[in-house]
Design goal:
Oligomer: single chain
Shape: elongated
Number of helices: 6
Distance between the termini: 49 Å
Number of strands: 8
Helix content: 10-25%
Length: 266
C-alpha cells in the first residue's frame, strides 16, 4: 500500500503600508517694485506685489515614516500516520523481559509433616510454606515464561521413593508413586521433608512445557533453568542456620552428580 506523508505547510502573507512624501512648490514670477505685467489680451495693468530676495521655501505636507507589517499564519494541521505495531519477529532474544517463577514445581508441605516442621524448625519451615500452580496454569493464567526446576540424580530409580521425614510424625515413609521408582532425574526441593511437587520427574516437567508450547506455537521463547542438587540434610541445616534436632533418623543422601550424569541430563 502506498503511504502518503503529509507535511504541514505554513503560508505567510505580509502587507506593508507606507506613506509617500510629496513636494508642492508654487513659483511666482518676481519683479522689482513698480514693474508692470501686461496681459496679452487686455490693457488692464496688473501690479505685482513686491518681492524680496529671500529664498523660496517649499512646505511639504507631514508624512509618516511608520511602516505597518501584518503577518497572518493560517491554522496548521499535522496529520500523524500510525506506524504498525511491532511483532515478535522484530524483537531480539536478548531484548525480551519475562516474568519467571523460582522452584516452579513446588508445593508446600502439608498435614503432619508441615506441623512437625513448624514445631521443630519454625524459622526454616516458614520459608517452605508456599505453593505454585502447575506449570501449565503458570503459563496460561499468569504469563510465566521462565521456570526454575531443581533435580536430583537417580540413575537406577527408587532413591527418593521413600521419605524419611514422615515417620518422625507417625506417617509411612513409602510414597507409593510409581514415577519415583523409574530411573532418571527427580524433581523436588529437599529430600525427606520438602518433597511435594507438581511433576515428579524432569521428563514429566519438560513434557508438560512441550505440550503447552505445541498448543501455543506463537509464544516467545520459554527459559528453563535447571539446578542440580546434592546437599545433605546436615548441609542444608548449616546453610539455613538452624539447628537440626537429634531425631535418630538416617536421612537420604543425594547421589553425587558426575560428568556421566550431566551427559545424561543433557
Amino acid at each position: 500500500m502506498t503511504r502518503t506523508r503529509y507535511w504541514p505547510i505554513v503560508v505567510v502573507g505580509a502587507v506593508v503600508v507606507a506613506a509617500c512624501s510629496g513636494s508642492d512648490e508654487a513659483a511666482l514670477p518676481t519683479a522689482d517694485s513698480g514693474s508692470v505685467v501686461e496681459a496679452a489680451s487686455t490693457s488692464t495693468e496688473a501690479v505685482a506685489p513686491p518681492t524680496t530676495d529671500a529664498p523660496t521655501t517649499s512646505v511639504a505636507p507631514p508624512t509618516s515614516s511608520t511602516s505597518t507589517s501584518t503577518t497572518t499564519a493560517p491554522p496548521t494541521t499535522t496529520t500523524t500516520i500510525a506506524e504498525p505495531a511491532p511483532t515478535i519477529d522484530d524483537v531480539r532474544i536478548n531484548e525480551l523481559q519475562v516474568i519467571g517463577s523460582h522452584n516452579s514445581y513446588h508445593l508446600a508441605p502439608e498435614g503432619a509433616v508441615k506441623d512437625g516442621l513448624f514445631a521443630l524448625v519454625p524459622a526454616f519451615a516458614v520459608n517452605l510454606d508456599y505453593t505454585h500452580r502447575t506449570l501449565t496454569e503458570q503459563l496460561d493464567r499468569f504469563g510465566i515464561r521462565q521456570f526454575e526446576i531443581d533435580v536430583f540424580a537417580d540413575p537406577e530409580g527408587g532413591h527418593y521413593s521413600n521419605r524419611q521425614g514422615p515417620p518422625v510424625v507417625g506417617e509411612p515413609a513409602e510414597s507409593g508413586i510409581a514415577e519415583l521408582d523409574e530411573p532418571g532425574f527427580k524433581v523436588l526441593h529437599i529430600q525427606d521433608f520438602d518433597f511435594r511437587t507438581t511433576c515428579f520427574t524432569l521428563v514429566a516437567c519438560l513434557t508438560e512445557l512441550e505440550a503447552w508450547s505445541s498448543a501455543n506455537p506463537t509464544h516467545v521463547p520459554i527459559h528453563v533453568m535447571i539446578e542440580i542438587k546434592e546437599d545433605t540434610i546436615e548441609q542444608i541445616a548449616e546453610d539455613g542456620e538452624f539447628e537440626l534436632p537429634d531425631l535418630d533418623v538416617e536421612w537420604t543422601v543425594p547421589i553425587p552428580t558426575t560428568a556421566e550424569l550431566l551427559t545424561d541430563l543433557e
